[in-house]
Amino acid sequence: MTTTTETGTETTATAAAVLEARGVTMRFGGLTAVRDVDLTVRQGEIVGLIGPNGAGKTTFFNCLTGLYVPTEGQVSYKGTVLPPKPHLVTQAGIARTFQNIRLFSNMTVLENVLVGRHTRTKEGLWSALVRGPGFKRAEAASRARAMELLEFVGLAAKAEHLARNLPYGEQRKLEIARALASDPGLLLLDEPTAGMNQAETRTTEELVFAIRDLGIAVLVIEHDMKFIFNLCDRVAVLVQGEKLVEGTSEVVQGDERVVAAYLGTPFEGAPGAEEAAEVEAAEAHAAEAEATEPEAEASEDAPADEAPAADAAPAETPASEGADSTTEGDSK
Ligand SMILES: Nc1ncnc2c1ncn2[C@@H]1O[C@H](COP(=O)(O)OP(=O)(O)OP(=O)(O)O)[C@@H](O)[C@H]1O
Ligand SMILES: [Mg+2]
């Protein structure tokens, strides 16, 4: 497979593999949530993982990070097979954020980042108890590093705030800072822009590029297709636990199977989306004009007008397929 970046940065096809998942399968009783998935993330890459609700994306992340022991398959980081234990995976160099934010809400922003730092500090329990000079030095270094990371994600001014008082978008960024505190070589982001407005999403996009520029490879799950296709060198599509397609943003957007199984209608920013938006705006305008017309009491007409539209709409709503099966999809 050839992978390229359009931005003029080096071609990543030949770069060393950071993550290699081979034949990863995860079964829960009779349900196969992830089936025989291979995925490679190379040095310098941002790779996207997309797919409908319940496709198995988070479950796959959980297999990569040792939260789940895959039923079959194995995961390697920089050529070494990982033991399925979260702390060993973190120690090896993989960090993650969670779809359902997991912060220590009663701790400060800075303290949350310090927690993420602990895998990289050598000072043991005894040293911490007696608070000797080694411990104090290490603590000062950790705080300095944590402040740097807060600066990096734009939260330095809120270092002493309680995590629970941060707006939602900033909590997501704090999770990223905490993940970065373990000095990862690979960062896994599970829906980093969920609940964010457009401006926050845009800054998160820039943040992910900046993380990549630090030499950290990124694997990111998102439902915001504009975000994914802007950001990723390569995108893999999971549908019902299986990898359906993998390729550049262009390849994936143009793949009929992906459109049928997931993308459905064009996302904002896709070719043709502008026209669609114009039509929508014109329709909204027309509806508004109609509503403000003096004799809006043509009660017989209204339902008749709506009927054909309702018929036309439901032909395909693939993006919501399986949505009802996933209310607990991220309960890990
Ligand atoms: N611990 C578990 N026990 C049983 N079934 C599970 C468990 N975790 C996930 N599943 C099931 O596995 C399937 C995949 O869920 P998963 O959360 O990985 O989907 P997802 O692609 O992340 O979806 P979403 O986009 O909604 O986050 C779902 O059917 C879910 O109910
Ligand atoms: Mg998920």
TrEMBL record:
GO terms for molecular function: ATP binding; ATP hydrolysis activity; L-isoleucine transmembrane transporter activity; L-phenylalanine transmembrane transporter activity; L-valine transmembrane transporter activity. It comes from the Bacteria. Residues 290-304 have a biased composition (Acidic residues). Residues 19-265 form the ABC transporter domain. Keywords: ATP-binding, Nucleotide-binding, Transport. Residues 271-332 are annotated as: Disordered. The lineage of its organism: Bacteria, Bacillati, Actinomycetota, Actinomycetes, Kitasatosporales. PANTHER family: AMINO ACID ABC TRANSPORTER ATP-BINDING PROTEIN (PTHR45772:SF7), CONSERVED COMPONENT OF ABC TRANSPORTER FOR NATURAL AMINO ACIDS-RELATED (PTHR45772). Residues 305-321 have a biased composition (Low complexity). SUPFAM superfamilies: P-loop containing nucleoside triphosphate hydrolases. It comes from Streptomyces showdoensis. This is Branched-chain amino acid ABC transporter ATP-binding protein. One of its GO terms (biological process) is L-alanine transport. Residues 323-332 have a biased composition (Polar residues). GO terms for cellular component: plasma membrane.
